């Protein structure tokens, strides 16, 4: 009986790949605390509040956001902005902006 509930919940889970953002360096470049509310402590609170998880994949360099598809569509823009901010500071490139404005082929 419980298997159906688990399968139903897993169907709603999706992975959003923010792209290759040099995840290893990016994760270490984010301070624990930030006066502007953009530190790792803030990221952990947002993950808990929104029931999503940010994954810094050190093997591929990609940053992933995992969670309910509807929350990823509507609620995680603050997380995307925070990650994009630090990626921009690290490399001078705003991947999230480029992905949002690029045309799909």
If you had to describe this structure to a student in words, what would you say it looks like?
- The protein is of the alpha+beta class and 105 residues long.
- The protein is built from 6 helices and 3 strands.
- The protein has helices spanning 2-12, 23-29, 40-50, 69-74, 77-91, 95-101, and strands spanning 13-20, 53-56, 62-68.
- It has a 3-stranded antiparallel sheet with strand order 1-3-2.
- Strand 2 (53-56) and strand 3 form a beta hairpin.
- The longest helix has 15 residues, at 77-91.
- The protein is globular, with a radius of gyration of 15 Å.
- The mean pLDDT is 84.
Secondary structure elements and pairings:
Blueprint (H helix, E strand, L loop, with lengths): L1 H11 E8 L2 H7 L10 H11 L2 E4 L5 E7 H6 L2 H15 L3 H7 L4
Antiparallel strand pairs: 1-3, 2-3
